[in-house]
């Protein structure tokens, strides 16, 4: 497993070792002992999967403490642009974001720690899967508006398909008035 630094504390891209042969491929998508060796000690307790048609955008989401979640995300088919925004008010990268293309053919993953807003746009029809270090808790859900110009995220798309809930998330300036991380 190759771990790629992003310049953000706790945020990593991961590239597993993939064994290809005439049948197809094999790789270890999660192995606790290996992650611990890499310094990733999250206790993942829930796995999620979603399917998004090309042009769908989900995010930017988080759960507040004590239900905050680290997420280990990847796509099993298709390709997405994945985005993590640092929402930790005392972080040197507060308000900044990092993007990575998650590609089913590359099998790469993104480890997004608690304290980040997370979202993605499907560049193709995509099946997205992720492990979470805390259970879903509806009352703890929060988010920041994906299109907020203050965040300056280049999603590479003009009119994405967005849920009603995600169209009315607070701006980053509003989040800054009452940060939760
Ligand atoms: C996230 C989640 C949703 N749900 C339900 C609530 C709702 O009825 C339905 C769809 O939920 P949402 O619209 O919030 O799904 P979605 O927009 O895909 O939410 C996800 O977005 C990405 C970007 C993330 O980072 C995830 O943590 C999660 O917030 O699924 C669960 O039952 N468990 C869960 O863990």
UniProtKB/TrEMBL annotation:
Gene3D superfamilies: Jelly Rolls. It comes from the Bacteria. The active site is at residues 61, 130. The keyword Isomerase applies. Homodimer. Signal peptide: none annotated. Pfam families: dTDP_sugar_isom. One of its GO terms (biological process) is polysaccharide biosynthetic process. The record marks 136 as: Participates in a stacking interaction with the thymidine ring of dTDP-4-oxo-6-deoxyglucose. GO terms for cellular component: cytosol. This is dTDP-4-dehydrorhamnose 3,5-epimerase. Catalyzes the epimerization of the C3' and C5'positions of dTDP-6-deoxy-D-xylo-4-hexulose, forming dTDP-6-deoxy-L-lyxo-4-hexulose. InterPro entries: RmlC-like, RmlC-like_jellyroll, RmlC_Cupin_sf. Pathway: Carbohydrate biosynthesis; dTDP-L-rhamnose biosynthesis. GO terms for molecular function: dTDP-4-dehydrorhamnose 3,5-epimerase activity. Its EC number is 5.1.3.13. It catalyses: dTDP-4-dehydro-6-deoxy-alpha-D-glucose = dTDP-4-dehydro-beta-L-rhamnose.
